Amino acid sequence: MLISIVLWLLAGLLAAAALVLLVLTVATWRIAARAERLVPACGKFVEIDGNRIHYVEEGEGRPIVLLHGLGAQLHHFRHALFGRFGAGYRLIALDRPGSGYSVRASGATGRLPEQAHVVRRFIEELRLERPLIVGHSLGGAVALALATEHPTAISGIALLSPLTHLEARIRQRFDLLYVPSPLLRRVLAYTAAIPLSLRYAQPTLRFIFAPQVVPADYMVAGGGWLGLRPSQYFATSTDFVAVEQDLDRIEKRYGEIAMPTGILFGSADRVIGEAVHGEPMLDKIQGLDFERVEGLGHMPQFVEPERVVAFIQRIAARAFAGVN
Fold first, then answer.
1. How does pLDDT run across 197-217, given as a tens digit for each residue?
2. φ/ψ of residue 301, rounded to 5
3. Do 236 and 131 meet the contact criterion of CB atoms below 8 Å apart?
4. Angular region, 123: left φ>0, alpha ψ -120 to 50, beta rest
5. Tens of pLDDT along 189-201?
6. Measured between alpha carbons, how far is 256 from 291 in angstroms, rounded to an integer?
7. Confidence of residue 11 (pLDDT cuts 50, 70, 90)
8. pTM value?
């Protein structure tokens, strides 16, 4: 009799758990479908070694390739910076593999050298002549990997609030993204992660943009809704776990960077601290153009786009001066 009761209780618990998972899965599907209706694909696609890369471009002239940060997508540049540069530049913003509408190759790891290789192949595929690379946040770490491992492919790097050093504190701030198991990562992506992300979206965005306010149009025009999809969560968690495998080794090679390099950092960045990831770079890269902006947070391209454009153009002038 007791065994029968226990079995019925277990069956009831399993049924309840299955029902919860079903509800979460349906909610995830509905949120993701809404995200893709509100922010559809808007660019072109190119196949790069099994990766399907989504990108947008504007203008003609010297090429500038823009790499977004963790959990973001190309609208972080398209919305914030396109239309502000004037003539003489060909701006190309891409969704990094797995982010936005780009699809990561089967078996890909998300490691920094791998992402840098994909960007180099992207440059080759589009026949870009040694572009300037602009990298924001994690995109800055990808740009640094590109500069150390494929220096002849690019003319310079302009970094916005870049991730430059390993720091345990960052993992602690984003511990829900640190999921080393790919299987658990995928289960979370299609069940709990997206409903929870939607619930806490506003506090998360306020933290990322602080001390400035979140733009009213960020979720649609800035592409914010695209972060609320299983594929995006999976890619973001993958990138977050992978970065610590190589960043320490890449740090040791910063002194090899001889190309024009610039860093723009806000003193009030709460996501990636300027004291750890910004100022120390002055002693590591010779001739570094370092611009520290008092009171600015982690999202300079949204908050001070004209300053960011002027900064990128200043680095571009140095970078392209050496390109035949």
1. 898 999 999 999 999 999 999
2. -65, -25
3. no
4. alpha
5. 998 889 998 989 9
6. 21
7. low
8. 0.92
19 has a pLDDT exceeding 80: no
Q: In angstroms, rounded to a whole number, what is the distance separating the alpha carbons of residues 105 and 50?
A: 5
What tokens were used for 2?
A: 């007791």
H helices, E strands: number in the chain = 13, 8
Are residues 98 and 231 in contact, defined by beta-carbon separation less than 8 angstroms?
Answer: yes
Reported residue count of the chain is 324
What does 234-281 look like in DSSP terms, one character per residue? HHHHHHHHHGGGTHHHHHTTGGG--S-EEEEEETT-SSS-HHHHTGGG
Query: Whole-angstrom Cα distance, residue 293 to residue 266?
Result: 5
Please report the sign of the dihedral spanned by the C-alpha atoms of residue 109, residue 110, residue 115, residue 121: positive
Residues 6+ apart with CB under 8 A from 307: 264, 293, 300
Query: What is the CA 47 to chain-centroid distance, rounded?
Result: 20
Spatial CB neighbours of 69, under 8 Å, sequence gap ≥ 6: 76, 136, 137, 138, 139, 140, 161, 163
With beta carbons less than 8 A apart as the criterion, state whether 276 and 282 touch: no
Strand, helix or coil at 49?
A: coil
